[in-house]
Amino acid sequence: MKYTVESDIGRKRKVNEDRVAFFERPDHLKLAILADGMGGHNAGDVASEMAIKEMEKSFLQIKAEDINSSEAKKRWLYEVISELNTKIYNHSLSHESCKGMGSTLIAVLIDGNNCFIAHIGDSRVYYFTPEAVTLVTRDHSFVNILVDYGEISEEEAENHPQKNFIVKSLGTESTIEPDFYELMLENPSYVLICSDGLSNKLSTDEMAAILTLPMSLKEKGKKLVQLANESGGEDNISVILLSLGDEEV
């Protein structure tokens, strides 16, 4: 598996509150993390930085035999995210400058061709194969609640003025319940993990078109960010792009 990581402040923000990281252990277990901090002047970057650091520490310490099944992976992710949520929440209560801070979170635990995903907020995971593009995660957003109740369509949700109003984030409540997903990766395929600074600006067709360009994986990651900036760049833009197989998808 190849990977590339990109994060850009965008064209309108003064601070990059996104944090992204990819960790690989000697036993080849991997962890990709994307956290989009929120709170503006109230230290969203503190929340996202805490998310990366705490998950890295736990990932490097966990024994491989303790996460050797889907159920064990889910349990570990749930436990570490619950602890992390408590730390961020307590930090926001005890530091006035951090009051109300929080973060989205995508954590992808990669074991061979298996990806086990934990998700909070409106950062996204897309999966690209030669046959299809799949949005794996479902935003924890106000508009998706409206979709669930049949008040608007999926298409209307994509362009709704309150699309970015999320109803679940890391560290803003005393407890958290992530969503979990599992992917078995085909060869060839791509996994795209991104903040809403990318997904709000590029359609899946535009993403797929970039992934088929004759360039390196790193160049594709940079091209995705470039196109989001050219489309306005109002938000921070972060990408983790994973590729399985040497062929182009």
From TrEMBL:
GO molecular function, one term: metal ion binding
Superkingdom of the source species: Bacteria
PROSITE patterns, per the entry: PPM_2
Signal peptide residues on this chain, from the entry's feature table: none
EC number of the protein: 3.1.3.16
Cofactor(s) listed in the protein's UniProt record: Mn(2+)
Catalytic activity: O-phospho-L-threonyl-[protein] + H2O = L-threonyl-[protein] + phosphate; O-phospho-L-seryl-[protein] + H2O = L-seryl-[protein] + phosphate
Key words, A-Z: Hydrolase, Manganese, Metal-binding, Protein phosphatase
Occurrences of domain PPM-type phosphatase (ranges): 2-244
Keyword Metal-binding: yes
Entry-linked InterPro entries: PP2C, PPM-type-like_dom_sf, PPM-type_phosphatase-like_dom
Record-given protein name: protein-serine/threonine phosphatase
Protein species of origin: Ureibacillus endophyticus
